[in-house]
């Protein structure tokens, strides 16, 4: 089993951040609870992040113009692109040069960061290879803004035959209809409280 956190970065999470996703800051304590459990059990953790170069060359089409016109969000090397501090196992900064090249950054034992180029965590990344090498068969998802990156990443995981557990109160922007759709593709939808009783 591995925990996947998605886009819990300052520029998407903090109040009045450039691309603040409402409700994400409020779920940070629940994500921290998950992280602490996975660290205690020495299970793999992958933090998936998004970075936007200031010239917009690596932005998806729907955000490209906004960034080309000067919007700054999750700029490599900026404080806004960093993981929210509560999630970090130590104060070390992200190695943006390494991440942008597609390499994983180890931030503690069994805990890595990976950069995704688009909505999905598996698209053109080493995520699947990394998980297979660790013998992972089940993915637990938490993070920021279900309609975009968590949803896409969950469907990509399903296509790759991973068992999927979605912590419904540790993902921002998820609604009953979304959970019903995920159940239809075989995901287990569970609260943090109930998950903690099982692990």
Question: What keyword list fits this structure?
Answer:
199 residues; Rossmann fold
Q: Can you describe this structure?
A:
By secondary structure, the protein is α/β, with parallel strands linked by helices. The protein has one domain (2-198): 3-Layer(aba) Sandwich (Rossmann fold). It has 8 helices and 7 strands; from the N terminus they run βααβααββαβαβαβα. Strands 3-4-2-1-5-6-7 form a 7-stranded mixed beta sheet. α7 links the parallel β6 and β7 (188-190). The mean pLDDT is 97.
The stretches of 5 or more residues where confidence is low (pLDDT under 50) are none
Order of helices and strands: EHHEHHEEHEHEHEH
Strand percentage: 15-25%
What's the overall geometry? globular
Give the end-to-end Cα distance, rounded to a whole number of Å: 10 Å
What is the overall number of helices? 8
Q: Give the radius of gyration.
A: 16 Å
The helix content, as a percent range, equals 25-40%
Per CATH, the class reads Alpha Beta
**What is the correct CATH architecture?**
3-Layer(aba) Sandwich
Count of structural domains: 1
For the biggest sheet, the summary is: 7 strands, mixed
Q: What structural class do the secondary elements suggest? A: alpha/beta
Total E-strand runs: 7
Name the CATH superfamily classification. Isochorismatase-like
- In the sheet with the most strands, the strands line up as 3-4-2-1-5-6-7
- CATH fold-level name: Rossmann fold
Short structural description:
This protein has 199 residues and is α/β, with parallel strands linked by helices.
